[in-house]
Amino acid sequence: MSINRREFLKVAGASTLLGVGGMSVSALLKENLLEASQVMTDPGSLVAKRWGMVVDVSKFKTEEDYKRVTDACHRIHNVPTIGNPKEEVKWIWKETYEHAFPGQEDEFLSPEIKHMPFTVLCNHCANPPCVRVCPTKATFKRKSDGIVMMDMHRCIGCRFCMAGCPYGARSFNYRDPRPSINEENVLPYDSDFVKGEGQQILIKKGNLSFPTRMRGVVEKCTFCYERLAIGLKPACVEASQGALIFGDLEDPDSEVRKILNERYSFRRKPELGTQPSVYYILG
Amino acid sequence: MYDGWKIIIGLIIFVGIATFPFLYDVGKASIPPPDPKIDTPEIQKMAVKKCVESKSFMKAEHMVMINDWRDAVVREGNRLYTSTTDGQQYTMSLQNTCMKCHSNKTKFCDECHNYVGVKPYCWDCHIAPKEEKT
Fold first, then answer.
1. Testing the interface with B: which of A32, A34, A46, A189 to mutate, by most B Cβ within 10 A?
2. Residues 193 to 222 of A: which have CB under 8 A from any B CB?
């Protein structure tokens, strides 16, 4: 039997279609392993329309006040301490006035304010530029509560989000963070442990219930989504002794809204239109 | 047949190379099939030894299930999983739920993964429980 070119192409085309179609059908059948009725949020979790934070700058008086907040966060999230400031990883940290609020360094600003360090973190913007530029949707805004989340499984380390974020809230892991997790940051329930495959130990101390990151991903504050899910406020808020106030910005009766109603507050770079969810008050 | 001996020598060399991997293995002890262990203290304590789903399901589908768990937790913020076998609820967490019982990663996870030559990247970030070195 001979076959001419026309017939050959017909058969080849039809079988390609069948093959591709068959693959997508089998993929569809495979997809629904987890029924929607099988998963639910923890009823004990804290919920809000849009989480926000108020930083009461006047309550940060000593070096210890800043350190306590940063340490609580960094130790609970296994954030590495790397000496080199170019490779530094930070979720919540101390920033000078002119870096936190550039463009507002007025000529005769009180020296007290001008030299006061501010605690800064991810602003969890209502209109986050990092989310817009992420090519893999590794960073995304949670519809339920407005948290700008990181999905480390998807991050490809392109660092577009770092270029997009006007607040410098994102850090890149230029190296494997495990050896640099601070040994002083000892949690009550931590211990030494072994990284698998016979490889001895990279992390000595750390929070064993929270993952680390790997080399080549971007990380930042997540408003402690893992703590909110079990009904706890963010670690920095707990450690701050009232200097950080956390609550629902969309709820007029929430603690943050009450404070914002009464006091003069300001945000970082409001002119960019990102609508930060972190407000600063001077006391 | 022109140059018959060249062709025949060529064929012999070809057959030799093609069958080398099989011949090389003849008579050698085969790699033992994987034997994942579930003898961790946490599992020993359980009156009824059961996982979140049936053993056969976990064996065949755990990788898909863990991926689904990941998406449910990270992307949708749903953390509780209801088992289809008995309706019991579990927190969807590799590090805090799976590894709490299966604290023997090298004898449980790696046993099969090494055998079939897959390298899941879970442990690049997730912290494996500490194991006694044997």
1. A34
2. 193-198, 203, 206, 208-214
pLDDT of residue A30: 63
Residue of chain B minimizing CA distance to A177: B125
Which residues are within 8 A (CB) of A86 and not within 5 positions of it... i.e. 6 or more apart?
A174
Interface test with B, best of A31, A142, A145, A194 (most B CBs within 10 A): A194
Q: What is the ipTM of this complex?
A: 0.78
Most confident of A16-30, A36-50, A149-163, A183-197: A149-163
**Whole-number pLDDT of residue B33:** 86
Residue A47 forms contact with B (CB below 8 Å): no
Burial A90-119 (b: 16+ CB within 10 A, else e): bbbbbbebeebbeeeeeeeeeeeeeeebbb
Domain range summary for chain A, segments of one domain joined by +? 51-177+212-281
What residues of chain B lie within 8 A of the CB of A203, using their CB?
127
Contact A214 B124 (CB under 8 A): yes
pTM of the model: 0.80
**Does residue A50 register a pLDDT over 80?**
yes
Written as six digits, the tokens of A186 are 């000892």
Q: Is A92 helix (H, G, I), strand (E, B) or coil?
A: strand
Secondary structure (3-state) at A6:
helix
Q: Output b/e per residue, A34-68; b: 16+ Cβ within 10 A.
A: beeebbebbeebbebebbbbbbbbebbeeeebbeb
What tokens does B72 get?
A: 């449910």
Amino acid at the residue B37: K
Q: B88, B110, B127: best mutation site toward chain A, by most A Cβ within 10 Å?
A: B127
Q: What is the rounded distance in angstroms from the CA atom of residue B33 to the CA atom of residue B52?
A: 25
- Return the CATH number of the domain spanning residue range A51-177+212-281: 3.30.70.20
